[in-house]
Structures are given as structure tokens and as C-alpha cells.
Design brief:
heterodimer; A: about 475 residues; alpha/beta; Aspartate Aminotransferase, domain 1; Aspartate Aminotransferase, domain 2; disordered N terminus; B: about 160 residues; mainly alpha; elongated; ORMDL (chain B); transmembrane helix (chain B); membrane (chain B)
């Protein structure tokens, strides 16, 4: 090839202008159209794509005219329970002083009697003198104290998982954990009777929530089968959808235990991830108090995330999640309650660590707690007019009226029973719910919490008090 | 990070980074560098280099703005709202005809006009240039916001 062919021939402006003048017509037409379009574009105003219905002026005026303002503070009846709280003085241990009267405490959730434990108090006191009271910062901004890392380590070792993450508020634990993993377009199969914290977490996650009947694995299987059918119809969507099943170890509203082996079977059959909220079962079920997985003998690796509240058995504040490192580490940046709230006060972390140590040293207390639960359950079942809801080994029992009528009537009767029992030395509480906000409002009940320090005499006395009061009221 | 003085935490950076200071100049410089690289390849003549610049620019534009969905990072603030949206649909949170969008509309058109001029209006080059320009301009129309033809690229 000649040199001239390799070198690109120079393009002279004259040639270019000539070519322009000889351009084909269709090309000129298209270019002119484009230029006109550009000019139109440059002058168009920006706007949002309207997603809502546009109202005419008249419709707007009508809506404004018919609007009635609601009072800022709605009328509440004089006898609303929130207006007359019972005041507790001193520690709410086995005996609690309510409104000046000392009662046997069957109301607060102090299952292992850690509240008032001298050893924990001593450890917390020395932590108080070393670290002060609050941590004054979220975990990312100098709020991480060595006792937090220590407690996370201890919790991971205790539950035999890879890692644990601490939250400063028990309610926020599960309410932050769910939206960290489940987003818009994902599906969560949740039990109908899940507690309020779980419901708020599901709301925050913006995912599709499918409720299955309380503790009904057949219903869950039916829903999973339907979902599998839908997935087959739309495999591309199914490939990007995450599926979760959310249950509680022991349900706060009912006292039942989740049938975990069947759930794990469903997990592997339908490829869903299991999240368990073990607030009430941690430190209660299992030979060593490790929770519902130990109780059923299910290996903990089968469960994807365990979330628990330290405010029940551990008598501290806050909560934790534990599981694989890969799963838990994600919450360190995505858990809203972890990143954007101040961390757990060091004093309370030390208290929780100490409580964990006690649990490790004395694994016999769990069996003792379960024995007491069984005694109390058996005794309470024999009260005429009231029926007991919940498993015999569950530390939470709900006493419902045997003959149920309207909700307000039942609640009033139960409140009367509680007040009378308190006058006679047994502190009880009616289970309270935010009635307008709950997904499935359980029937009105008295919630009874068992304490490992209860003696048989205490149980007998309490039962006779309740029987007498029930006979009187009903 | 990627701020035109308008980002704050809790906002999708994909929506605002193209409003940053110096983006237009950077865009023009990038296209120029691409063109210079193509011009320096010895066996391409000027017309081919221009058409190739136009085509490569348009294909890159299509892939990054209309094919890839979601964001390259965790979206903690919107619970996955932008998971199914392309970059173009995320710009300025879905507001149409903002300055950035107008600029990105104009870039292929100006390249097309320049390419037609420098290829001396040759019909074969015209076919390539026009088709890629349409490929890139049509998805940018507001009528096609969120539209997935034949369900391609939907999930």
C-alpha cells in the first residue's frame, strides 16, 4: 500500500461545506426536525409525573368546606387505666410495693429473679463508678464501650452463634432488624399473633406481609404453596424476591410455643429464611436456657436470625440479635436502631453480662422455672370462671374469662379482679394493647408472669386469692 | 460525595450526582477523549471515527442510563424503592425535564448532527447514527418513564 493510503487524507473545510450543500433531503429534514425539537425542549418546564388524581377547584373547595377539625386531645373517659397508673415504690422483685401495699408480684416479667440480685447490683455499681451512667453516643460515634463488645462476645458464645449485635432498646431490636433485611418487593410470612414490635418492624420494612393463622403450620404451608405457584408463573420476579418467615419463640400475646421442627422443615422445602423473636424464650426454654432451638433440639445454624429482648430474663435493658457473622454484620450499618440511637449504657451492659454469667453457672434454674410454670398453670386451670391460655411450661399465661361477652365488659371485669387481688396482696395486670393499632387484637386477659423464686406456698396463696376474687366478681 | 451542594444523607446519590459542578464539562471532555482515541487508530478514516464515537457514546449511554437498575450501594433510606428503577428514572427523583435531563437529551442529538456533518451525509453512516440516536433518545421520553417493553429488564 502507498504511504498516501495509510495517512488519512486531510478533510478540507471547502469539501465539507460542499457536502453539506449536496446533502440528501431526508437527512436535512431529520436534522431540521431535531433542531426544532431541541429548541422546544429547552423551553419546556420541569414537572413531576402526576401519580394522584387531579382535583378541580370546586372539588377542593368542597373538601375544605366539609372538613371538621378533630380535637388535639381527644376526650378520654375518666376511668381510663392510663390516667390512674399504679405507682410502684422500690424494686419490683418477687414482692413489690404497689400504691403503698406489699404484694406478690405476678405481673412484671422477671422470670429468673435477676432483678434485685445482689451480685448483679454490685457489678453494675462498679461499672457505674467506672463508666458513668449513659454512653452519650451511637455505636458509630464514640458510643462503643469495651463492655458492649464484651457482652456481644458473651452472647455469641452463649447462644453458640458466630456474632451478636446489641441494641439499646428492646422494642427497637426487632423493629430495626426486620427492615434491615426485608425491603419493598420482598415477602414476609408472619404469625397473626405477633407482638406489636414485630408489627411496627413489618410496617417500616414496606414489604408485602402475609399473615398466617396463629401457630398454624398447615396454613403457613398453604400460603407457601400459593407463593410457589405464583413464583413459577413469574420466575424473573421470583428470582429477586426475598422470602422470610417471622415467628416468636413464645408468643407474648398467647403464651404458645412455635412448632419449630415443622417450621425448619418448611424452610428447606420452600426456601424461606426464618427469623425468630426469642424475647420470652431466651433464658427460659432449653436445658441451658438457650431458647426455643435448644428446647426442640434444632441446630442453631438452621435459623437465620434470632432476636431477643434483654428486658425479660436478663433484667437489663436493650436487646440483641445473633446469627451468622455475614447476617449480623449487615445490621451494623443497616440497623436503624443501632446506627441512629445512643448505645446501651455501660452499667446495663455489665448487668446483662453478669446475668449471663449467672445463667451459665446455674443451669438448674431453667428447669426450676419450668416446674413452677407447670404448677401455676395446673393450679390456675382449676379456677372456675377463668380459663388459662398458654403452654404449661411457658412463663407467660393469659387468664381469660370462660364466658366472654363484649370487650369493654370483659376488660372491666378483669380490671376489677386485678384491683381486688391487689388489695388482697397479689399484684396482677390486665394485658394492655393499643387497640386501634394491633393487627389481631387478642381477647381481654390477665397476663401472669412466673418468677423462679416463687415457692409452692406463694403459688397456692395466689391461686386461692384469685379464686375467691373471681367468685366474688363473676 | 457526588454533591452539587444538594446532597444530604438519606437521599439517593444517583438522583443528584449528575447535578454536580463540572459534570457537563467532564462529559464533553470524556467524549472528546473518546473521539481522539478513535481518531488515532490508524486504519479508521475520519468518517468512521465520527460514526464510531457516536455509536460508542450512545451504547454507553444506553447501558448506564437505561439498562442497569438500582444503585451500586445500600439504600438504607428508601427500603428498596429504587431497586427496580434505571438510573435515568432515578435522576432528580423522577422529575421530568430538569436541567440535567435536558443536557442528557441534547448530547446524543449534538453528536448526531456533528457526525452527520463529518461523514458528509453518507447514507450507510446515517443508518448507524440515526438508529443509535433513536435507541438512546426514545427511553428518555417522559412517556416511557417506568415502561418496560415486553417485560425486558423488569426485575
Amino acid at each position: 500500500m502507498a504511504v498516501e493510503d495509510v495517512i488519512v487524507e486531510p478533510w478540507y473545510m471547502m469539501q465539507m461545506v460542499q457536502a453539506f450543500l449536496q446533502a440528501p433531503v431526508y437527512h436535512i429534514v431529520i436534522e431540521v426536525l431535531l433542531i426544532v425539537w431541541i429548541i422546544g425542549l429547552l423551553f419546556s418546564k420541569s414537572y413531576r409525573i402526576q401519580e394522584r388524581v387531579q382535583l378541580t377547584e370546586k372539588e377542593k373547595e368542597d373538601l375544605l368546606a366539609e372538613w371538621q377539625p378533630e380535637p388535639l386531645v381527644p376526650d378520654t373517659p375518666e376511668d381510663h387505666p392510663a390516667l390512674h397508673p399504679r405507682v410502684v415504690s422500690g424494686k419490683a422483685g418477687l414482692k413489690v410495693v404497689v400504691d403503698g401495699k406489699e404484694c406478690l408480684n405476678l405481673a412484671t416479667l422477671n422470670f429468673l429473679g435477676m432483678l434485685g440480685n445482689k451480685r448483679i447490683e454490685k457489678a453494675a455499681n462498679s461499672a457505674l463508678y467506672k463508666y458513668g451512667v449513659g454512653s452519650c453516643g451511637p455505636r458509630g460515634f464514640y458510643g462503643t464501650v469495651d463492655v458492649h463488645l464484651d457482652l456481644e462476645d458473651k452472647l455469641a458464645k452463649f447462644t453458640r452463634t458466630e456474632e451478636a449485635i446489641l441494641y439499646a432498646y428492646g422494642f427497637a431490636t426487632i423493629a430495626s432488624a426486620i427492615p434491615a433485611y426485608s425491603k419493598r418487593g420482598d415477602i414476609v410470612f408472619c404469625d397473626e399473633g405477633a407482638c406489636f414490635a414485630i408489627q411496627k418492624g413489618l410496617l417500616a420494612s414496606r414489604s408485602k406481609v402475609v399473615y398466617f393463622k396463629h401457630n398454624d403450620m398447615e396454613d403457613l404451608e398453604r400460603l407457601l404453596k400459593e407463593q410457589a405457584k405464583d413464583d413459577k408463573k413469574n420466575p424473573k420476579k421470583a428470582a429477586v424476591t426475598r422470602r422470610f418467615v417471622l415467628v416468636e419463640g413464645i408468643y407474648m400475646n398467647y403464651g404458645d410455643i412455635v412448632p419449630l421442627p415443622k417450621l425448619v422443615e418448611l424452610k428447606y422445602k420452600y426456601k424461606v429464611r426464618i427469623f425468630i423473636e426469642e424475647s420470652l424464650s431466651f433464658g427460659v426454654l432449653g436445658d441451658n436456657g438457650r431458647g426455643v432451638t435448644e428446647h426442640f433440639g434444632v441446630p442453631i445454624e438452621d435459623i437465620d436470625l434470632i432476636s431477643a429482648n434483654m428486658e425479660m430474663s436478663l433484667a437489663s435493658i436493650g436487646g440483641f440479635c445473633c446469627g451468622d457473622s455475614f447476617v449480623i454484620d449487615h445490621q451494623r450499618l443497616s440497623g436503624q436502631g443501632y446506627c441512629f440511637s445512643a448505645s446501651l449504657p455501660p452499667m446495663l451492659s455489665v448487668a446483662a453480662s453478669e446475668a449471663l454469667l449467672i445463667m451459665e453457672e446455674k443451669p438448674g434454674i431453667f428447669e426450676e422455672l419450668r416446674t413452677r410454670c407447670k404448677w401455676l398453670h395446673a393450679k390456675l386451670s382449676s379456677i372456675p370462671g377463668l380459663k388459662v391460655c398458654g403452654e404449661p411450661i411457658s412463663p407467660i399465661m393469659h387468664l381469660q374469662l370462660a364466658a366472654q361477652s363484649s370487650r369493654t365488659e370483659d376488660t372491666t371485669k378483669l380490671e376489677t379482679i386485678c384491683n381486688e387481688c391487689m388489695n388482697q396482696g397479689v399484684a396482677l395486670t390486665v394485658a394492655r394493647y393499643l387497640e386501634g393499632e394491633e393487627h389481631l387484637l387478642p381477647p381481654p386477659s390477665i397476663r401472669i408472669a412466673v418468677n423462679v423464686e416463687l415457692t409452692e406456698d406463694d403459688i397456692n396463696d395466689a391461686t386461692s386469692v384469685i379464686t375467691n376474687v373471681a367468685k366474688m366478681v363473676l | 460525595m457526588g454533591d452539587g451542594g444538594t446532597t444530604y444523607s438519606g437521599v439517593n446519590p444517583n438522583a443528584v450526582w449528575l447535578n454536580s459542578r463540572g459534570i457537563w464539562l467532564s462529559y464533553v471532555i470524556a467524549v472528546t477523549i473518546l473521539h481522539l482515541i478513535l481518531l488515532s487508530i490508524p486504519f479508521l478514516n475520519v468518517a468512521q471515527a465520527w460514526t464510531l464515537t457516536n455509536v460508542v457514546h450512545n451504547i454507553g449511554n444506553y447501558i448506564f442510563l437505561h439498562m442497569l437498575k438500582g444503585t451500586p450501594w445500600e439504600t438504607n433510606w428508601d427500603q428498596g424503592k429504587s431497586r427496580l428503577l434505571t438510573h435515568w428514572e432515578q435522576i432528580d427523583f423522577g422529575e421530568q425535564f430538569t436541567t440535567t435531563r435536558k443536557f442528557l437529551f441534547l448530547a446524543p442529538v449534538i453528536l448526531f448532527i456533528l457526525a452527520s456533518f463529518y461523514t458528509k451525509y453518507d447514507p450507510l453512516h446515517f443508518v448507524f447514527n440515526l438508529s443509535t440516536m433513536l435507541l438512546v433518545l426514545i427511553p428518555k421520553l417522559p412517556q416511557l418513564h417506568g415502561v418496560r417493553i415486553f417485560g425486558i429488564n423488569k426485575y
